[in-house]
Amino acid sequence: MASLVFLCGETRLTQIVCGVVVKGHWNNLLKSNIGSNLTSTTVNQVLLNLSQDGCRVSWAFFQWLESNLNHKHSLQSTWTMVHTLTKHKHFKIAQNLLEKIAVRDYLSSPSVLTSLVMTHDDPDLNSQILSWLVIFYANSRMTQEAIQVFEHMRMHGFKPHLHACTVLLSSLAKVRLTDMVWKVYKKMVRVGVVSNIHIFNVLIHACCKSGDVEKAESLLNEMESGLIFPDLFTFNTMISLYCKKGMHYEALGIQDRMERGGIPPDIVTYNSLIYGFCREGRMREALRLFREIKGATPNLVTYTTLIDGYCRVNDLEEALRFREEMEMKGLCPGVVTYNAILRKLCEEGRIRDANKLLNEMSDRKVEPDNVTCNTLINAYSKLGDMVSAMKVKKKMLEAALKPDQFTFKALIHGFCKLHEVNSAKELLFEMLDAGFSPCYSTYSWLVDMYCDQGNKEAVIGLPDELSRKGLCVDISVYRALIRRLCKLDKIVSAETIFTLMQAKGLKGDSVVYTSLAYAYFKSGKAIASSDMLDEMAKRRLMITLKIYRCFSASYAGDGSILGLFWGHVIERGLISKNILKHIQELDVNS
Question: What DSSP state is assigned to residue 508?
């Protein structure tokens, strides 16, 4: 038999192996050198032949090859096995086998998928398997790969299963890829997938994430017109959205609608409504709703929301009373509960009480999180106790907590107030190395510190110093420096940085030009201001509503001067008609 292996072709070898397997003489493959000469093509053909009589023998042989001949199955033979198992309704085994090769063999690649799918012409089976692949990638947070498989199915006429579409949309909504949610949904509808309650719930959830009330209401109407009745999840999502938008009347209307429709509110419903009132300081309404809870039991989230709400309206006594109540009911405060109380204690400068609370957390095995540490760091920094602030940062690192932008911001602010230049800069560099972009406030504190010391050269040299550290200095750095210097009426320094920025090949944006134009206008340099506005018009740099609001708030004390400046801006057409309409509405309301 050994010599026969070399004399016969691939087809004959396949027949021989199939005969040996069917007769059950598998060990003959070990004794001869047939097994050692099996190619991936031969194995794939053997599996195809064996699958004609079911999948029991082919699956057993597939596993036997791996364990006895140490055979590494090719992607093609594994795909064939997945198809065979799926065809004979061994779905769980097929899914597990598919998931093993999903990451290893880059199955989301269009070229790989095309070559695999072409070898099996059953469209229903291909749709089933590819739908599983979409689900696996989506659940594994490999959204790009999931989208690629979905696109392949759409382009090759394979209809994705409804559950695969639901999981894909849900995974996109979770990571706030709202635009992609709508793109996938539209394509899904075009290939004939009919939406059900689960699809609509995912879409409304995406609206909640993006704060799109109008779209959510439209989807709710579309559901009902299609005789798809909203469920508890639908209503809770709508209530959550309304509460986040401060639309309490609409939220309570949904609650009433639920009850009239025979869907009793659960604790999630009540928690959302209570949160909506608490975030706006409307504690009387929040308390009334809490007392009216029926058919549900207040949980940790309920009490923590109320405690946080009372802390925010400066009623620490009532917050602590609710904490006692929750503990009497057997609910232990979590880290979020402690953080709410800790924040209030720190705001009131009660550091000793804050440390007692920390000791209590330790005794109860409640691990501090970033919010806990940042609250303490911020409190110490405001008090100028940077030794204690840095100790908290050290404890963060020891607890495997990573400092975030709020950690660095608080520490930099503290050191800047104390004019400890080196410490402030060291933390700035550490912040940048950690991948965080300092905001305008952070650079402002550095500018203020240097200006207080009369060290304008240090401000002007800051971009180059950052560059020498190997950091990328973009327009955001120059923008922040110029904006703050203009606010401090340090126009000469602002001009110098503007010139250096241009020499680096960076062009100013609307904020840079508006800052300089207003600084010139305010100091009586009308021609220089006019030149800046003309350059803006030439480059079509427009004033957005955000810029208008920001400048109006920052220079609110300037009175009529600011009004005259905006008049010049409008004359040059640097504010669109739509934005101007919003501005006029703001002025009327104020």
Answer: P
pLDDT surpassing 90 at residue 560: no
415 touches 423 (CB < 8 A): yes
57 and 89 Cβ atoms separated by less than 8 Å: no
CA dist., res. 107 & res. 152, Å (int): 11
Residue 72: phi and psi, rounded to 5, are -95, 105
- Identify which of 199, 196, 238, 246 has the alpha carbon closest to the alpha carbon of residue 217: 238
Q: 3-state DSSP: the chain helix, strand, coil percent, rounded to 5?
A: 75, 0, 25
Instruction: Give the span between the Cα atoms of 349 and 331, in whole angstroms.
Output: 28
Q: What is the pTM of this model?
A: 0.78
Amino acid 146 reads A
Location of structure tokens 């104390």: 418
Rounded percentage of the chain residues whose pLDDT exceeds 90: 58
Entry field: residues in the chain: 590
Query: Which pLDDT tens digit goes with each residue over 390-449?
Result: 999 999 999 999 999 999 999 999 999 999 999 999 999 999 888 888 888 888 998 999
Given a contact cutoff of 8 angstroms between Cβ atoms, the answer to whether 83 and 75 are in contact is: no
Total Cβ atoms within 10 A of residue 575 = 21
Comparing CA positions, the residue from 523, 505, 520, 585 lying closest to residue 548 is: 585
Q: Is 70 left (phi over 0), alpha (psi -120 to 50) or beta?
A: left
| Cβ–Cβ under 8 Å, residues 14 and 49 | yes
Q: Where are the alpha helices (DSSP H) in 469-559?
A: 475-487, 491-503, 510-522, 526-539, 545-554
